[in-house]
What we know:
The chain is an alpha+beta fold. The protein has 1 helix and 11 strands. The chain is 18% helix and 49% strand. Strands 1, 2, 3, 4, 5, 6, 7, 8, 9, 10 and 11 form an 11-stranded mixed beta sheet that branches. Strand 1 (36-39) and strand 2 (42-49) form a beta hairpin. Mean pLDDT is 84; it is low at 16-33. The structure holds copper (II) ion.
Amino acid sequence: MISNIGGRAETMNLALKVLGAYLVFLSGTTVLQAQSVTVGDVHIDHPWARPLPAISKIGAVYMTIKNSGVKNDRLVSGSSPVSERVELHTHIHQNGMMMMRPVEKIEVPAGGEAALAPGGAHLMLIGLNSTMTEGTEFPLTLRFEHAGEIALTVKVGQP
Ligand SMILES: [Cu+2]
């Protein structure tokens, strides 16, 4: 009985150690890496947002997402403290007009990349509660199907 409890305590201890290492890993990758972030096979270059006047309630974020792995990955969601929610958008041409449309995921092919750029796929900040002032930065967390969560710092200003 006693050895049983000891074994369980040891398991707990190991679990805490793993959690600790994970947190150190997380903080190491999230702290103000404004220009690029790599987590596993996914590498994110140059996340930036368009500067906007204070009255704007929506904003757009762009970046290049590279996948050096052998498995296709998908960006499935995002969140940021600067907006109520983050949507994944694409641009489509309809009746001669450019329109934005929410999508459920953005493909990041194995050995390839997804370019989130003006006129194409982008992240939409809906319900902005912060002004997109040129030169400032804000945090954004992305969630990928395989790479998991990636936290980045987005710079406001043209790339
Ligand atoms: Cu949009």
